[in-house]
Amino acid sequence: MKTCYEFANFEQIEKKVLALKTDSIFFIVDERVWFLYKESLPCTKVAEGKNFHVWIAPRGEEAKRIGEFEKCVEFILEKGVHRNSHLVAIGGGAVSDMAGFVASTILRGITWSIIPTTLLGMVDASIGGKVAINSRFGKNLIGAFHSPQNVWINTDFLNSLPEDELESGNGEIIKYAFLSSEIYEAIMNDVNRDSLIDLCVRYKMDFVTRDPYEKKGIRRVLNLGHTFGHALEKTFSLRHGHAVVWGMVLLFQILNRQDLLDKLNALRINLGWHELPPPWSSGDVPINKILSYVDKDKKICDSKTISIVCLEDIGKPCVQDLSLEEFKIKMQRALNG
Amino acid sequence: MKTCYEFANFEQIEKKVLALKTDSIFFIVDERVWFLYKESLPCTKVAEGKNFHVWIAPRGEEAKRIGEFEKCVEFILEKGVHRNSHLVAIGGGAVSDMAGFVASTILRGITWSIIPTTLLGMVDASIGGKVAINSRFGKNLIGAFHSPQNVWINTDFLNSLPEDELESGNGEIIKYAFLSSEIYEAIMNDVNRDSLIDLCVRYKMDFVTRDPYEKKGIRRVLNLGHTFGHALEKTFSLRHGHAVVWGMVLLFQILNRQDLLDKLNALRINLGWHELPPPWSSGDVPINKILSYVDKDKKICDSKTISIVCLEDIGKPCVQDLSLEEFKIKMQRALNG
Known about the structure:
2 copies of one chain form a homodimer. With 337 residues, chain A is of the alpha/beta class. Helices cover 46% and strands 19% of the residues of chain A. Chain A contains 13 helices and 10 strands. Chain A has helices at residues 10-18, 31-37, 66-79, 93-105, 119-125, 163-179, 181-188, 193-210, 226-236, 240-254, 258-270, 287-298, 324-335; strands at residues 4-7, 24-30, 51-57, 86-91, 111-116, 130-135, 138-145, 150-153, 305-313, 316-323. In chain A, the strands form 3 sheets. Chain A has a 6-stranded parallel sheet with strand order 1-8-5-4-2-3. In chain A, helix 4 (93-105) links the parallel strand 4 and strand 5. The longest helix of chain A is centred in the middle third of the chain and has 18 residues, at 193-210. Chains A and B meet through helix 3, strand 6 and strand 7 of A and helix 3, strand 6 and strand 7 of B.
């Protein structure tokens, strides 16, 4: 199913929710969003002939525990869901990942929509239909492909977003800027935030449409900065977008590309991101821990080589295969500065 | 993905498993099958360059509890699954339902195959890609569509199948006989068991291929006897196939079709099924309980009418819409004999 992306304010979202062709809507709402925006959300409206049920999900990755998934599913089944019921996720990427997995599995799949409330959710998590919950052995290991019917983007939510979450979203936007010269130029020319979000959504959507089930490898370039990023994210408990940026920094260091490092710095400044020291600069670098995470990530491909998304220039990503040994040596060298 | 159905003995199955293009295979095996057939199963063979892992699942619906699903998924993730890993379910419908749901959600979907060990599994559960686990609020409420790559049918398993499980499989076969005159004739002409299974598989496959995600209503005729059957199954704790047969008996009584009741009796005798009194004949009939289950089933459609698969004649199913009230009155009349 093709997802419909639209910018909409609270009033417009309410109308769109009420216009959904169903008598039964389940809302899964991030607890902080519920606390701050309860009165403005469509789920608190009374509408004739419509049954609304609200499930409050815990913040962040907590929402993606299998126990939380189970509680949420049982709540929805208890309330009486039918095949024409619709689910609406209101929250950041963690809440929409979980809610989408609920929507994909309840009665073997009901339709759903997302109202992303974080910048990362708007430009990344809500696009592509990848939904999942976490295992004890890693993030997003239990999931499905289940595209939402609608994504309603209301940037008013960003006004209350904590600084580090805003930065995390900007981290993914910086990634897009390296993949697309149009987005790079937009940031350097200080285009307004809504237009920038729109560019990122359309950029990712293009890849997703061409490879909805990630079968063709087309989506791989979207993982720029992610191979290192994921390992850094776990090692230093970073936010996802921060980790992606530091993953790119590490990649550009490995590739000996000072020009790209300079561009990254310029993008960071234009997006209002404070200068931060790399997480690996403080004290001892737990290189083995980082390498073990990269090694674990490797499990997803069945080979002794690791594919990394590299960059010839802005807008020119390419995939390079490195032997795992070669990769480890290069990473070690870069981390030790 | 189109499923490949093949009859195969233990030796042939072993070869086919070893020929799977992967270095990593997870087996989910019914505990009774494991106890009886351990030595003959492919999972106990040693094969160079292949990693085999075995998860023993409890018998019957117990395998489909969300807690069992979680334990099985975490086992597989702990052992190190990758996107090219393959899963093989060895057991009846409950085990393959659960295993298929595991295969559909692990890393957002890995390929899988089924070795059905019950007659019901061979002629029904293994066909169609519907996989699911149970909720506290009902069976198969959490699931997906995820077709297996292969179904390897080894009727040797049926030699150790308890009588009532064999009968349960024959119950679904009787249903097929009413839907297809070819299958009806085959039974009345005492065709051999393998050919009969083959006919049933091909009959159901035809519907599944034309409507893989149950979107078009084409598969609905396969539910002959199921609307009442499901309610009787829960009310009297019947086996599925038995419930389907009694569901058909009730339907034919409601439709005043003594000719179909006679044919059902002839089929039953030819399949070697002992005569049993209808479950509702002994003592008080809990009509309200039965009706409440039918009512609950109704939830899956968004209306005040209920669609029932009826039968003009052998091979001529049709769908009739009844108002829920009318339906209740007719059912009540039939149950009271």
